[in-house]
Write a structure and sequence with these properties.
This protein is an alpha/beta fold. It has 18 helices and 9 strands. The longest helix is centred in the N-terminal third of the chain and has 73 residues.
């Protein structure tokens, strides 16, 4: 053992000595670049043999040499300053994250203190947790713990809301009437394409994301759709502090035995009493991390069997609980769509691929242009009728096999070049989206252009685009070769912006 330790010591000594020589040599050689003495010594060897022209070129060369060395020094100073700035920004962000985490902990602490004070109040009144302390009277176990949900039960005591309006219109009529209604009644101006994309998004996924700069009518669009459908669209403002499902749905107070219901939960519950298409807006949905507070809903909506769409609320059932609450769970309505608005700036979180892949993202970056509206009819649309129109669109506007072949050709190029491919979910969404967009009066190639931009090329943001300039240029040429010079303009413009 002693022999091995001696061997180990000598090897490590030599290794560390060589490493010291290596880094020390780097440091000495770096400063040797700026050694005036070495350059002056070389000049002394040759200056006696210089003639007039030699002195002229020597002076010019020395000026250039000094400039070059000065440039190296200047670049080093710039790099150091940039590193300091980046490091400072990173430290500030870390400090901000720590401050937010500290504030969240303080909020949790305050909630616990509040519950503790409530418990003291309960004990002073001689009650036990679960008794009603709101008016100082002892209450039994049958007290209502879901005030808002029970009010919904009372509102629909006579039965579900069933529309009596005739269901007789086409998707293109729906788009035109909705556009004219928004213009004439609400002074909101949207293009036929935006409305068509929105309706096609309803056929594609249960989540639609309207993103873009502020003030372009992102929140107003689902508001107008709700007014048009005769069911006001509830708007749920997302808060930066949201970290889990309890912020969205609510939570059970263990001391008062009351459930702190949110408007979101009430609106979802009410949709179970309706057969009509309903929207719920998550305003500024990326102020908090979507995959935190919306994770359970995202996973649930992926289940193919809608009978398994159950929202977990409480661990047990009371006799006084709402009618539709079974086993502590609420059956999730199939007639509700979620519309999230998102601004992309420093105050928001990046929307992850997990969310984008499950949603239809529609960018709205320009203000609407006023136009003269035509006549319109309002519809109280049944969910079943709207889905029937989607099925009929897929039967009437069949995607040509030749288009699938061109999509496969593009997919092969993107996979080989960028290691990004079209997943099964995206292909299914494409088959749902394109026929409905065509039925809304749009062009199928234009719909494909939009779909590729928002579903595939958006993923290129994870690439190091500075190293992919040549491949991105090739991608534009491939799009032109496959789809033609005049087509896929939105995709080409998106790629050009990435190149710039």
């Amino acid at each position: 053992m002693d022999v091995f330790l001696k061997f180990f010591y000598e090897v490590m000594y030599v290794l560390l000595e060589k490493l010291g020589d290596f880094f020390g040599g780097l440091w000495r050689n770096f400063w040797a670049i700026f050694s005036i003495r070495d350059y002056n010594g070389i000049l002394s060897l040759y200056k006696d043999d210089f003639n007039g022209w030699a002195w002229f070129f020597t002076i010019v060369f020395l000026i250039l040499l000094v400039g070059f060395i000065g440039l190296i020094g200047f670049m080093i100073v710039l790099l150091v300053k940039k590193y300091i700035r980046v490091r400072k920004k990173f430290v500030e962000q870390e400090e901000m994250v720590l401050q937010i985490d500290d504030l969240n902990k303080k909020v949790v602490k305050l909630i616990r203190e509040k519950d503790y004070l409530m418990a003291l109040k309960v004990s002073q009144l001689g009650l036990k947790p679960g008794d009603d302390v709101g008016n100082g009277e002892v209450a039994g176990e049958k007290d209502e713990r879901f005030v808002k949900l029970i009010s919904v039960d009372q509102q629909y005591a006579e039965g579900m809301y069933v529309t009596e309006h005739p269901q007789d219109f086409t998707l293109e009529q729906l788009v035109n009437d909705l556009r004219n209604y928004a213009c004439k009644e609400l002074k909101l101006f949207y293009t036929h394409r935006i409305i068509g994309l929105f309706v096609a998004g309803l056929a594609t996924s249960k989540i639609i994301i309207l993103e873009g700069i502020s003030g372009t009518g992102k929140t107003s669009l689902p508001y107008a759709v709700g007014k048009f459908f005769a069911f006001d669209t509830p708007i749920v403002p997302v808060q930066p502090s949201w970290r889990d499902k309890a912020e969205l749905v609510g939570y059970l107070n263990e001391f008062t035995r009351r459930f702190n219901e949110t408007d979101f939960l009430k609106n979802v519950y009410e949709c179970k009493y309706r057969e009509t298409v309903s929207l719920i807006v998550l305003d500024e949905m990326n102020l908090a991390r979507i995959e935190y507070y919306f994770a359970e809903v995202l996973s649930m909506l992926e289940l193919p069997n809608t009978a398994e769409w159950l929202l977990d609320v409480v661990p047990d059932n009371w006799a006084s609980d709402p009618k539709l609450l079974t086993g502590g769970k609420i059956p999730f309505p199939t007639n509700v769509w979620f519309v999230g608005t998102a601004n992309n700036d420093d105050s928001t979180f990046t929307i992850t691929d997990k969310v984008y892949d499950r949603a239809t993202a529609i960018p709205i970056n320009t203000k609407g242009v006023a136009f003269e509206p035509g006549e319109y009819k309002r519809y109280d649309i049944k969910e079943t009728y709207l889905k029937q129109l989607f099925v009929e669109a897929k039967e009437k506007y069949i995607i040509p096999e030749g288009l699938f072949a061109r999509i496969a050709q593009l997919d092969n190029f993107v996979l080989e070049t960028f290691r990004i491919t079209f997943g099964n979910r995206i292909l299914k969404q494409m088959k749902d989206f394109l026929p409905v967009f065509a039925a809304c009066g749009g062009d199928m190639i234009d719909g494909l252009d939009f779909f590729l931009t928002t579903k595939i090329f958006r993923k290129f943001g994870s690439l190091n685009t500075s190293h992919e300039q040549e491949n991105l240029q090739k991608l534009i040429l491939v799009l032109t070769a496959i789809f033609g010079e005049k087509n896929m303009q939105e995709s080409k413009e998106f790629i050009q912006r990435m190149i710039r």
